[in-house]
Design a protein that fits this description.
Length: 129
């Protein structure tokens, strides 16, 4: 099982950025993908999770601070989970990671779970004011 995030980047406040998480080594079906950020001097926190069934997003949930600004999706052609980020603010600056949970179902698919067993390497996103 391997997850690999695309390169992040630097944007100005109000800008947009999309991160991709390449998924390989397993069949993406009834799979929970979580997105997490780790700001400098802060604990890692989950911001979004999505439950994928037969390569399509079945459900998604978002942390309140990103709801309406971030959107998770899955590209079945590239087999990558995506995190589209809009209206970025300096407080969104962090290292972002994707993670996969291959056990459990939709009810347990939440970014609050501690059962994400597989992680990407993380990628830096910097938002300047």
């Amino acid at each position: 099982v391997q997850l690999a995030e695309s390169v992040g980047g630097s944007v100005q406040a109000g800008g947009s950025l999309t991160l991709s998480c390449s998924l390989s080594g397993f069949t993406v079906d009834r799979t929970c993908i979580g997105w997490f950020l780790h700001g400098s001097g802060k604990q890692r926190e989950g911001v979004a999770s999505t439950f994928i069934v037969s390569l399509s997003v079945y459900s998604s949930i978002y942390f309140h601070s990103v709801k309406g600004r971030f959107t998770v999706s899955h590209n079945k052609y590239t087999n990558a989970a995506n995190l589209q980020m809009r209206s970025l603010q300096p407080e969104d600056t962090a290292e972002y990671s994707c993670a996969a949970m291959l056990k459990g179902g939709m009810a347990t698919c939440t970014y609050l779970s501690r059962d994400f067993a597989y992680w990407g390497q993380g990628t830096q996103v910097t938002v300047s004011s």
